[in-house]
């Protein structure tokens, strides 16, 4: 398992020394025959496949190079795997730097269809995989809708990492609801009333006014989710056969007025615009805020952290579906995937090598590999109990799994045992399943705009910055409209025109 330049240099030196000794012994052996046992071994460096993978790591520490999980991965796949762990906070920058260098690893986790990835794919930096998937047991079961969502110009440049379409939800402090004798909200009006009570009515009972309702951060996801409750489109809306960007709809403005009201009344943490998104859950765990609008499975992670602090603090968390708004029950879906795994042509040069890499990826979707990369080794990282597993609480051992699940695709489905299904985990599954009937698709998602590839970050920043400034009261409605006009002037008008042209072609 080659991991770093230093270990590689040491390995080369040792292999060279071993080769010299072996050659001398062979020369002295009866009959002068060569000792070919090493060269014929299926696991020898000469025959073992070698794959390098660039992976984001959302934990503070990376797995040790020689840990048992990665060794088992190599054994089961007959592959020498080199992981390049990159902190999630700097992954986009590292990804772009690596693309610019032209020296790409075999596999790269692609977090989204960024302009840099689109340009690289179009210029031939990555293999187009669509024609090959049918030849592999697991990959052939990929969902066609999700493949289409993840495609570029209708072509598959990466194997998507499957996620629940109806993944988003509302995580709420159930104990606060109970303390205030409130019911879980189901409508936007009830949601507002709960946020107000969580801020003003001492939900934690400590006699201090030190809580607020909604937890927000620099992350734009919660606003995107909630504006759909008001009837705003998911990215793009359709009217009379034409695509309209979400911010140009009246429902979008109504949502922003609601957010502005929450902020002006102190129902949101005041520092959200500069707060690190990774700190959001801490605010709920520590009893600062009562609600997070994000992926529903945050509820189970927050509950686990609360129970770590106080094992007796059960029933502290609940998870809800989207709030019912003026246009009914609507929820923002995911795209069905969280990034993809792309295969570079700079490291994987031939079709034969490509098929070897695809075999490796296909194997990762087997139950055995899903279990390994999600939960580690039985007896070390978890124990089996009935029909579920019990993970170790040893943090040093769990370090072996930091980031390993980032290379899993779960195609065609998630397999194997999981942790015991607590009540909150069961509720999360119920919410995500129920969401499938209320998610609002994005008609523009499969479309790849050249204008957006060139100006996407600038255009997105104009809208997101204006939204934040409007929420916190730095600009009024006129200032918001001025920002929308600036968006059009800086490429937004051409972007809309191009998207509609692509949409018309797609309909044909």
TrEMBL record:
<dbReference type="InterPro" id="IPR050490">
    <property type="entry name" value="Bact_solute-bd_prot1"/>
</dbReference>
<feature type="signal peptide">
    <location>
        <begin position="1"/>
        <end position="26"/>
    </location>
</feature>
<protein>
    <submittedName>
        <fullName>Extracellular solute-binding protein</fullName>
    </submittedName>
</protein>
<keyword id="KW-0732">Signal</keyword>
<dbReference type="InterPro" id="IPR006059">
    <property type="entry name" value="SBP"/>
</dbReference>
<keyword id="KW-0564">Palmitate</keyword>
<keyword id="KW-1003">Cell membrane</keyword>
<keyword id="KW-0449">Lipoprotein</keyword>
<keyword id="KW-0472">Membrane</keyword>
<dbReference type="Pfam" id="PF01547">
    <property type="entry name" value="SBP_bac_1"/>
</dbReference>
């Amino acid at each position: 398992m080659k991991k770093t330049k230093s270990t590689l240099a040491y390995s080369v030196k040792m292999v060279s020394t071993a080769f010299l000794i072996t050659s001398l012994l062979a020369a002295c052996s009866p009959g002068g025959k060569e000792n070919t046992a090493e060269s014929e071994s299926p696991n020898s460096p000469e025959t073992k496949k070698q794959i390098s993978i660039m992976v984001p790591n959302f934990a503070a520490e990376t797995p040790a190079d020689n840990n048992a999980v990665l060794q088992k991965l190599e054994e089961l796949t007959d592959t020498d795997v080199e992981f390049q762990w990159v902190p999630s906070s700097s992954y986009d920058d590292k990804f772009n730097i690596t693309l610019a260098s032209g020296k790409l690893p075999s596999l790269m986790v692609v977090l989204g269809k960024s302009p840099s990835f689109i340009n690289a794919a179009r210029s031939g930096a990555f293999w187009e995989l669509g024609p090959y998937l049918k030849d592999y047991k697991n990959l052939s079961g990929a969902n066609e809708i999700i493949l289409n969502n993840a495609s570029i110009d209708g072509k598959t440049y990466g194997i998507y990492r499957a996620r629940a379409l109806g993944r988003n939800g509302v995580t709420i402090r159930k104990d606060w609801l109970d303390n205030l004798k409130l019911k879980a909200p189901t409508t936007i009006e009830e949601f507002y009333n709960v946020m107000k009570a969580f801020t003003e009515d001492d939900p934690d009972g400590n006699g201090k006014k030190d809580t607020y309702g909604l937890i927000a951060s620099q992350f734009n996801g919660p606003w995107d989710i909630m504006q759909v409750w008001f009837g705003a489109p998911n990215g793009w809306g359709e009217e009379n056969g034409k695509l309209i960007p979400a911010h140009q709809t009246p429902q979008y403005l109504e949502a922003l007025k609601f957010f502005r009201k929450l902020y002006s009344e102190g129902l949101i943490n005041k520092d959200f615009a500069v707060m690190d998104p990774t700190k959001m859950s801490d605010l709920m765990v520590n009893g600062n805020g009562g609600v997070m609008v994000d992926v529903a499975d945050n509820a189970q992670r927050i509950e686990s952290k609360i129970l770590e602090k106080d094992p007796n603090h059960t029933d502290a968390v609940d998870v809800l579906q989207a709030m019912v708004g003026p246009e009914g029950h609507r929820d923002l879906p995911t795209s069905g995937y969280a990034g993809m795994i792309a295969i570079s042509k700079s490291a994987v040069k031939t079709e034969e090598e490509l098929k070897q890499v695809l075999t490796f990826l296909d194997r990762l979707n087997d139950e055995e590999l899903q279990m390994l990369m999600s939960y580690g080794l039985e007896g070390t990282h978890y124990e089996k109990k009935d029909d579920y597993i019990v993970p170790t609480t040893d943090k040093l051992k769990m370090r072996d799994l930091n980031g390993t699940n980032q290379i899993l695709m779960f195609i065609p489905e998630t397999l194997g045992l999981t942790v015991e299904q607590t009540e909150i985990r069961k509720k999360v599954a119920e919410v995500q399943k129920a969401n499938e009937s209320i998610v609002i698709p994005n008609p523009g998602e499969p479309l790849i705009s050249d204008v957006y590839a060139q100006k996407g970050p600038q255009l997105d920043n104009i809208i997101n910055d204006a939204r934040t400034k409007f929420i916190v009261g730095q600009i009024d409605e006129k200032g918001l409209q001025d920002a929308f006009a600036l968006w059009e002037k800086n490429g937004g008008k051409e972007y809309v025109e191009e998207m509609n042209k692509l949409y018309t072609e797609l309909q044909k």
